[in-house]
Amino acid sequence: MNGFYEKVKNKKINYSWSREAIYRIFSENKDRCFCVIGIKKQLLMKYNRNVSLNTIYRHLDFFEANGLLVVVQNDDKKAFYCLKEDKPIAFIVCNKCHRVIKTNIDIELEKCSEIFKDIKYLTIHKTCEICSKKFTGGG
Q1: ∠ CA 127-120-6, rounded to 5°
Q2: Are β-strands 100-102 and 89-94 bridged in parallel, bridged antiparallel, or unpaired?
Q3: Is the Cα torsion angle 57, 63, 66, 69 positive or negative in sign?
Q4: Which of 54, 122, 126, 136 lies 20 to 30 Å from 113 when distance is taken between CA atoms?
Q5: Strand partners, 34
Q6: Residue-wise pLDDT tens for the chain (139 aa)?
Q7: How far is CA 134 from the centre of its chain?
Q8: Cα separation, 40 vs 51, whole angstroms
Q9: d(CA 64, CA 133)
């Protein structure tokens, strides 16, 4: 949350309950990606507060512009957001359900070619584990 408070203070933006609540959802779920509807549902479940989609989009734009979040689009152009890290992040975009899932793949940049030295994130398009189990009869 330190990065959040620092960015808000530096931009001289007034306090907003909804801005802090949205960022708190990300900071408490560092390994997850959320679409806007998912964020709206989290706000209702956790805080029992309804926040307009317009407000959510404005706050997400602020977070992305200030380097706090990364946004990744799936094949249907639906945006998914996750907390930015100091190292590159890898995502799986599922070919079946179109979810965007943050992976635990460790990207070692020193082993990558010069072309990939400045990457911020990598997307891998494949069937996710949940859909693989559905289509193979597992779980």
Answers
A1: 120
A2: antiparallel
A3: negative
A4: 126
A5: 81
A6: 556 667 666 666 677 899 999 999 999 998 889 999 999 999 999 999 999 999 999 999 999 988 889 898 888 888 999 988 777 778 888 888 888 888 866 655 556 656 666 777 778 888 888 888 876 655 4
A7: 25
A8: 7
A9: 34
